[in-house]
Structures
1.
Amino acid sequence: MLSYLHSYHAGNFADVVKHVTLVGLLQAILRKDTPCYVHDSHAGRGLYHFSSRESLQGREFENGIGRLWQVQQAPELIQQYLALVQRYNTKPGELLHYPGSPAIAQAMLRQTDRLLLTELHPMEYERLVKQFSPDRRIRIDQQDAYQGLKAFLPPAERRGLVLIDPAYERKDEYEHVITGLIQAHKRWANGIYVIWYPVMSRALQARFIEACKAADIPKMLHAEFMTKAFSYSLDFVGCGVVIVNPPWKLDKTLEENLDWLLPVLQQGPGARTRVQWIVPE
């Protein structure tokens, strides 16, 4: 337990999909003037360096942000995402750093907004504190993500977003995610919830989506991105997000942007995207 370090995978295709989605959600939330709350339940270290031993071991970023970095034309949402990545890479054309969800939220939120980061891993927590503690809008807590959902919801703000993005290193993680979502939604029914998940097994993916349907939570959108077809070796072939209370027209926004990303990030035959309602509005 607690062996997972996201720095091995930072900037890969799944991060691109997750963070393009996050930027689109934050843009929608920030259109209104009232303060908002963002809660990142599995924050990681928040900012990653591609020169690190972990990143260089698998070089997963090369098939993610590395493919996207030099594109000349892209949809507006993807341009905004790339501008945020550029913000952490000061030399023109040089890609050395990658902002995780905490850094993306920090860059986009206003002075009246608030960001909560929870992280249990001691080393990742220390790096979070070093990177983000000077910002008074940000609170950092070292604790179990699901306990954090109980402790900090509902927030004082009426609007906001909760990102649930575990490592899925535990066999029962999917069950914890669904239970945590149900409990959090009971505490704060108006919040936007974003659950990221990896796709490795067709059967596991199907069971997870069925569990989402059975959660009896309204307004649930599902977007999935497959870089290639399923394999029998349980390869990491895709990822998805389940979004509760998505902003108006987010389904169309995701459909257009994921379709654009597909030829850039695909890794083999069978690549596809899908955006559909699990539980309609």
2.
Amino acid sequence: MDTDRTSDPILELDGVVAGYGRMTILNGTTFRVPRGAITTVIGPNGAGKSTVFKTVFGLLAARSGIIRFEGRDITNWSPRRVLEAGICYVPQGRNIFPELSVRHNIELGGVAAGSGITDLPARIKAALDRFPVLRRKADRQASTLSGGEQKQLEIVRGLLLDPKLVLIDEPSIGLSPLMVQETFSILTELRDRGVSVLMVEQNARSALEMSDYGIVLELGQTRMVDTAAAILADRRVGQLFLGGALEDVKGSLSSQA
């Protein structure tokens, strides 16, 4: 791996345990997210991918372990405090106010910061200038947007706080191939502007092909952390996501953990 980036990670999980009720999903999850890069988390259903995001963002309590952001312990901080620290979370599915206009949906992104944003109108204008489709439809109801446009709206709303790290969960769900590529291009643009991106994506191959790094989770534990190219070239990962025997791959990954 690129030791220059990994020696100064923007986010670290160290032995994190978390779950729902009596069910434990993260079983000592440990990994580092490089600064200024796109990192994709992959793994079979139930691996804990989305649970990682909810725990980092404070929506789910960590039972043990440490979460660090820029070297600072943020374990079990409230979502508001995590957001103010510089982490934006774009959850899976559609999370907009369909009856409100596009502009009003974006404005609500600034409400999350309370009085922390003094130049909200200027930020909204800059955001709309970067997304011409949304600018043209700024006064329309959000429900009239296509699935891809709604995902852009969610991303724009999160970017109003000028985050250092974007957590984005399954950005391609329900999108056409063209809109998937457009969404990935937006994430690449963010990376090129210095924003770190941590992504969970069902289309593992496409996500890894546009990522710098990858993390493989299985049963709430980290099985591999490497460059995206190295993970794509790994035979076991290829079997897991390209129709190989799942149990064989799980056994192979578990044996090296």
